[in-house]
Amino acid sequence: MNRPEAEPLADHVQLTPAQAWRKLREGNSRFVAGHTDHPNQDALRRQFLVDKQHPFAVIFGCSDSRLAAEIIFDLGLGDVFVVRTAGHVIDSAALGSLEYSVDLLNVPLIVVLGHDSCGAVTATINSVESGEMPPGFIRDLVEHITPSVITARRNGIRDVNTTVVEHVQQTTHRLVEQSRIISSAIDEGRTAVIGVTYRLAEGKAEMVSGFGVL
């Protein structure tokens, strides 16, 4: 089977938040169907990006090995700016990286990406139920995720996967609340922030929350 040709190496065209999300959805649909293009992964693309980058989205996702953004959205080199922490926990480094992508790279879309069977969320649920905290800096992760678990409990949610949805929604809220750079970009229509959950078995990514115009 012939491999698809590389995309033309043209000047960067700024996408709107809606266009960026549509491009991600289209790539994910190809991945789910098993008809991936594997774009922008050749030597020509690599050389083109040596002294510049123009990602059209930033993916703030969980560190889980089953959640590789470029694969599940059928993307290649230079397409997305990726920030990952276990349970997509917001810390100063993650927030600074996201602000960099918006303020300096002019990325029009931030995607908070969670997934079912999340180990970090599961560990937090176990800690809330048992009253015992894990050792080391794992405790820091659990402390960051605990508000989402408590909110889920208040809404009658107790299973892991629905709690993940709540945590993704809470993370999008916190990003907008904590970052003036991101909230200003949303107000100006330059950026949108959306929450997306990914189903491991099906490979499908679905939007569950959002700020900004799509």
From TrEMBL:
Origin superkingdom: Bacteria
EC number: 4.2.1.1
Top-level class of the enzyme under EC nomenclature: lyase
GO MF, one annotated term: carbonate dehydratase activity
CDD domains the record matches: beta_CA_cladeC
Any Pfam family hit: Pro_CA
Reaction(s) the record says it catalyses: hydrogencarbonate + H(+) = CO2 + H2O
SMART domains, alphabetized: Pro_CA
Key words of the record: Lyase, Zinc
Cross-referenced InterPro entries: Carbonic_anhydrase, Carbonic_anhydrase_CS, Carbonic_anhydrase_sf
Family: Belongs to the beta-class carbonic anhydrase family.
Role played: Catalyzes the reversible hydration of carbon dioxide to form bicarbonate.
Name of the protein: carbonic anhydrase
Source organism of the structure: Paeniglutamicibacter psychrophenolicus
Source taxonomy: Bacteria, Bacillati, Actinomycetota, Actinomycetes, Micrococcales
